[in-house]
Amino acid sequence: MELPDRKMRILKAVVRNYLETGEPVGSRTISKMTDLKLSSATIRNEMADLEEMGLITQPHTSAGRIPTDAGYRLYVDDMLSSEKQELQDARKELLDMKDFLLKKQDKLETMLQSVARTLAVSTNYASMISSPTTRSSKIKFIQLSQVDRHNVLAVIVIEGNLIRNKVIPVEEELSAENMLKLNMLLNTNLCGLAVEEITLGLIEGIKRNAGIHTAIISDVIDAAAEIVRGEEELKIYTSGANNIFRYPELADHQRASEIISDFEEKQALGSIVQETLSSEGQNGIQVYIGDEMPVARMRDCSVVTATYELGEGMKGTIGIIGPKRMDYDKVVGVMKEIMNQLDALYRPAEAGTKDPADGGGTGTGIRAESGKPDQPFTLPDLRIPQIKRIEIKEL
Amino acid sequence: MELPDRKMRILKAVVRNYLETGEPVGSRTISKMTDLKLSSATIRNEMADLEEMGLITQPHTSAGRIPTDAGYRLYVDDMLSSEKQELQDARKELLDMKDFLLKKQDKLETMLQSVARTLAVSTNYASMISSPTTRSSKIKFIQLSQVDRHNVLAVIVIEGNLIRNKVIPVEEELSAENMLKLNMLLNTNLCGLAVEEITLGLIEGIKRNAGIHTAIISDVIDAAAEIVRGEEELKIYTSGANNIFRYPELADHQRASEIISDFEEKQALGSIVQETLSSEGQNGIQVYIGDEMPVARMRDCSVVTATYELGEGMKGTIGIIGPKRMDYDKVVGVMKEIMNQLDALYRPAEAGTKDPADGGGTGTGIRAESGKPDQPFTLPDLRIPQIKRIEIKEL
DNA sequence: CATTAGCACTCTTGATGAAAGAGTGCTAAC
DNA sequence: GTTAGCACTCTTTCATCAAGAGTGCTAATG
Predict the structure, then answer these.
(1) What whole-number percentage of chain B has pLDDT above 70?
(2) Is the pTM of this model over 0.70?
(3) What pLDDT, on a 0 to 100 scale, did the predictor assign at position B363?
(4) What is the pLDDT of residues A148-160, one digit of tens each?
(5) Among A59, A128, B256, B327, which is 20 to 30 Å from B41 by CA?
(6) Do B149 and A370 touch (CB under 8 A)?
(7) What mean pLDDT do residues A160-181 have?
């Protein structure tokens, strides 16, 4: 949609003023705040045109105008296409949070929660962040071990030192010999593969390759494969849901209750995440306004989302949810800054520093080992061949 | 506080009526609803007495009366001390949820979330549940393994098949020999001990016992010990926060925002959990009314908490948060029923059933292996001595 | 002496209406 | 094309008023 310059400037003025005040904005206000020297009457004529075009509307006769979804959309598109000066300001504003954010969290979970909080605090909107996908991450290491007679522990380490584990119940104890074979079998066949490459067919192949073919071994292999494939669980962390009370248009019982509920259940947010991941936006940032929202119950809101990447294809989504009259400029600025920081945080900046790159809890570390490339599983590196050297009697 | 029977009945009538309606209740209403045949004038006199005692109060002259915190307290104490008929009803009401709840979740995390939701749905209040403590649980199994040159993976299995893990960064690769020694060292020294028994002194002792004493090994042992000791992280799951909008006295912006915020941050809830765990209440159930709340910002609420136990000393807390005019009878009933079900769920009812007693995510299964007692670590059972039998060349 | 009927009094709630204010659309003038 | 002026509309605010609910007190009653 192309708009004459003057109309565009008036539209922007209406939007910007409404973003600030939340009140319908009248012609007199616009006449005073813009630098084009026009009287309120002229503005009124232009506004009548804009209303006819469906860009602004008035809640009732003789109230000021407020932007429609289409009006917001035009405003946002214009903003996104011209990298603005204001963005710089927003970034500076966030700089203070840097220390807060930059503290390396030893758990991915904690880190994500911290990012969510930072977003919420620095924007005064509700925020969310999804855990990164691991579908395209490669498997580094698999280990099965007998915990007790009836349980086998399977641990799988993925690129980025994410850990997945599971206790697999078994009918009878596996012999140590079979256990070793299983370990080697799984490591040689699966290490170096991406999670998404583990198919049912592949698993069947491995089962056939297993020299001894008991039902138990089959079970264990299935379970192990399931950890890798099936565990692709989307976790979503949220913060600042209470910020919706700052915006009267969202704060009535009905709406507030629905939004809070969506935030608690997190399921609705999941569909926003999916939507975002599946479609790349401008500058990596996407804006859903009102009816464009994937979630019906949030039609009174806008969402700004972005896809972050922790290297090695671990992608996730961050999002800001607020009223339609959201400060889009600021939010987009903050968003970009956060993404920069996430990037810097992950990149092995100072190689050789020793920091706990662990993961308890969800079992997840956020730093890969610094710099040096993982080498996929090769026999000589694993401990099994070297076992020869051990004399058990010593113990 | 001892109260003449008639006054007590009037107090109860006031409380009960106010719980239902949320409106101040007048003398005429009481006169009609109680079975003691008294005119409103008499009730008025009695109510004036009750007010003087500080059990009820009136919002303004010429409004009805509402209970004070002390009034609620008397009511609740009376209810808790006499096991009531109504409780039975509440339990029956919950029976429908049974199917929903009884589905064995393969993850502790999912199960806890499900319990929280059940509580919230069946009571129409906000609910929370804390993850069980593992302080007194015993360690079953420890395993260190070299993931790649610069990372050692430590996995620890605790009673109930809870799994803790961490990737420990190391300066240089450990020899397979040292790795084996470390494994045996840790297993022989720590298996069978309760988490809370792992002291700093014990760790120092183990370090001294390690034949080879390099800095790396010391680091690894420290890290392993830290997983066990330090990871005692209280996780809290919540549900139904939006239920507060059902109760006008909590639903104004100020209060709602605070409560929602507390529910999201979960920190405040943590102090309620601590408070509950440290003091056993009547029937295992505790009620905090208004000012009795450990959390200042929730002074307008009441909380009913209970301590659940998943066997083997894994204790946690469930809680219902609602307005002071909460349906205490129902809540206490539901609470007891949930506790029964949790108990039944954990108890190995049908031994021999094969169900996934796993844990991904937080790495946590909720069923111990069925029936048969764990045997703490013994050398012959572990795979290490048996390795002799393997011919590596075969591979 | 406990209970009750009656009554004046207080306070909230809801409805009504008037006045003020903000903003528009339209017309006519520049 | 722009602007001043004006009538009109609609919301918001405030005061007033009547109705209703509930109380406390007093006096009457069994």
Answers:
(1) 78
(2) yes
(3) 39
(4) 888 888 888 888 7
(5) B327
(6) no
(7) 82
B24 touches strand D (CB under 7 A): yes
Lowest mean pLDDT among A34-38, A341-345, B251-255: A341-345
- Which residue in A has a C-alpha nearest to residue B259's C-alpha? A242
Identify which of A337, A294, A339, A296 has the alpha carbon closest to the alpha carbon of residue A316.
Answer: A339
The string of pLDDT tens digits covering residues B149-199 is: 888 888 888 887 788 888 888 888 888 888 888 888 888 888 888 888 888
B31: closest CA of chain A, how far (Å): 35
Q: pLDDT tens digits, residue range A32-89?
A: 988 888 999 999 999 999 999 999 999 998 899 999 999 999 999 999 887 655 555 5
Residue A221: both structure tokens together: 């292999």
* DSSP code of residue B296: G
Torsion angle of alpha carbons B251, B254, B258, B261, nearest 10°? Answer: 80
As a whole-number percent, the residues of chain A with pLDDT over 90 amount to: 38
Asked if strand C comes closer than 7 Å to B36 Cβ, the answer is no
Q: Check if the beta carbon of residue B176 is closer than 8 Å to that of residue A383.
A: yes
SS3 per residue for A181-204: HHHHHHHHHHCCCEHHHCCHHHHH
**Which residues lie below 8 Å from residue B114, measured CB to CB, with a gap of 6+?**
B100, B101, B103, B105
CB atoms A379 and B392 under 8 Å: no
CA angle B157, B160, B162 (to 5 degrees): 40
Burial of A195 (0-12, 13-18, 19+ CB in 10 A): buried
**Cβ partners under 8 Å of residue B394, min gap 6:** none
As given in the structure block, the two tokens for residue A249 are: 């248009």
Q: Name residue, tokens 């099965």.
A: A144
CA distances from A81 to A76, A85, A281 (A): 9, 12, 11
What is the bridge-based pairing of β-strands B139-148 and B151-158? antiparallel
Cβ separation of A260 and B238 shorter than 8 Å?
A: no
End-to-end CA distance of chain A: 80
> In the 135-154 stretch of chain A, whose C-beta falls under 7 Å of nucleic acid strand C?
none
